[in-house]
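Let us practice reading a record.
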Amino acid sequence: MLTKEANERLTRIGPGTPMGEVMRRYWFPVATVSDLDRDPARPVRILGEQLVLFRTDDGQLGLVQERCPHRGASLAYGIPEDGGLRCCYHGWLFDRQGHCAEQPGETGSEKLEAGSEAPSHLPRGRASCKDTVCIQAYPVQELGGLIFAYLGPAPVPLLPRWDLLVRDDIEREIGFVELPCNWLQIMENSVDPVHTEYLHSRYTNYRLRKQGKPPVAAERHHKQIRFEVFEYGIRKFRLHEGESEDSDDWQLGHPILFPNVLAIGDSRTAHLQFRVPIDDEHTLHFWYWTRPRPLGAPPQDVHDIRVAENPYKEADGAFRVDNVNGQDMMAWVTQGPIADRTDERLGVTDQGIILLRRLWEEQIERVARGEDPIGTVRDPAKNFPMIDIPRERQAFYVAGGYVDSSADLVPTAQHGL
């Protein structure tokens, strides 16, 4: 169990919090390219900050605070132009660095009308403060059909070029959902391999039995589990009863890439999961599924990537627990907005969770000393052309049977891990 203070330290990610300072040293996906195809200016909330993501008329990306400093109107309703984003209320224009480029009606050279008084913060005889106005702005980059943001201090680290984001020989599909729970309980699930025995196997068969259907999930017991810390995070390994120690599960494993990525699948069919903290009690979850492109086919256009919501509840409010993703989301969300870890009872199978928490505490200390946290990428030679992630061959569990990792993608709501 954790103390209340330790639980707060690991889960709170707002500005100025210990974990918030760590999180602001990483890049996070905040939207897809197709989101801006539909609307070139849209609100984004990440790490407790309310922002606006936009694409200018000349194709440049920007991310700035949502509130206009003039009268407080939302820049999410702004007008993207070549020079930046223009507030729809009075036309103030902000460039991608947050500088005020124009203030229509406030030329800065006109004398005030006789008898009027300039505001105290303006130079006498001038009606403009354009050169002194600057709003919060953050770096943004597009990679693999996702748009990433960095909310931390300079020098800005490199955006990690994870293999699936840059390969030309794969076809991509993106699922997303906003979940009413803290990011940490989702990440802890990723270092908890044993839950698959029950949540994705026995529980799946139980659900099918209730419907009068035969079982389809093999209820394989974990004989051994182990974890190791590596350059980008944690690798987890499992050995099921009846499997050889030469198996990919035991030799290759699959990694959790700090701060928020789970990597699954082999070199042919693999996927990434991104868990993005919206605020302390909400998380934006992306699934980044891939499969091989036909031999000789041109690279997939990022604007053609299918994007679809992967909801966690049915229309009647019940959790969608007839597929693996839905089962996971039920387990995450039902722990509450922020899991109470002061009364938990961990066992020997929770060694990955204990390691993850210890590693996060170490990152808090490293950032407090002015050091980079684990997984920070600054060496271009390591980042280009891509960071190749070793993964084991992984079966995809679905309600209705296993789909081997070499099979075609299944409908969005039925993907599993």
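A brief commentary: The first strand starts at residue 27 and ends at 32.
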